[in-house]
Model the fold of this input.
Amino acid sequence: MKPYLLALGAGLIVGVVYSLLNVRSPAPPVIALIGLLGILAGEQIVPIAKRVIAGQELSLGWLKSECGEHLFGALPARDRNETDAGPGRRLS
Done:
């Protein structure tokens, strides 16, 4: 139940911000997508800040593993048979 209440609270905050910016909901697609990108990027600030405050270094590997997949989603895996033989052909 708690995640639903938190989601409702976040939605109310976004609604207030939209109202202050004179953007009506549902927002035009580009504005909504940019807002979603901001939400996804903003979620990554907390783990980065915690790591910096704890005095740990930020490595590229850590950023990729902790932030990359969440921000950009899981990338499709390469099919070895297609890449080695070329598109549309299979190795025998």
Notes: The helical segments are 2-20, 29-53, 60-72, 80-85. The chain has a mean pLDDT of 77. The first helix runs from residue 2 to 20.
